[in-house]
Amino acid sequence: MSTTKTFAVAGVSTLAGSTKIRFANDTMRIKILAKNGHTDIDLIELPTAMTKGEIAQHMIAVGFGAGNPATEAAIDYTVKKNPAPKQENATVEKTEAVAA
User: Fold this and answer.
1) 3-class secondary structure, 67
2) For residue 70, how many other CB atoms are within 10 A of its CB?
3) The overall pTM is greater than 0.70
4) Cys-Cys with 7: which of 17, 23, 55, 92 at CB 3.0–4.6 Å?
């Protein structure tokens, strides 16, 4: 049984010139990122706990980082690495016609 990790907070930060999406479960993550030398930290609380793929889709839907090429690239990369789960085709079994 696999469990899918979800996060309540997400956003972006830049470290050594590389902007990436960051995932967390509370906004205290901002202090840790800043302490470790991250810049341009922008985290938001999510409406519900989400997976990484769902977070990237949510960021696109709400326009998070729109107009910022580094943020847009980080979101696009996350979408690529975390595709939406494929839905399985439901099988429909034929049933005998019921006589009236």
Assistant:
1) coil
2) 15
3) yes
4) 23
DSSP state of 25: S
| pLDDT digits 0-9 by tens, 53-70 | 999 999 999 999 999 999
Element (H, E) at 58: helix 52-62
Residues of the chain with pLDDT below 50 are 1
Structure tokens at 59: 């960021």
Both structure tokens of 90: 């439901």
At 83, is the secondary structure helix, strand, or coil? coil
The residue type at 3: T
Q: Choose among 8, 9, 7, 6: nearest CA to 44.
A: 9
Beta strands per DSSP E along 1-100: 7-15, 18-24, 39-50
Give all strands of the β-sheet with 7-15 in edge-to-edge order.
18-24, 7-15, 39-50
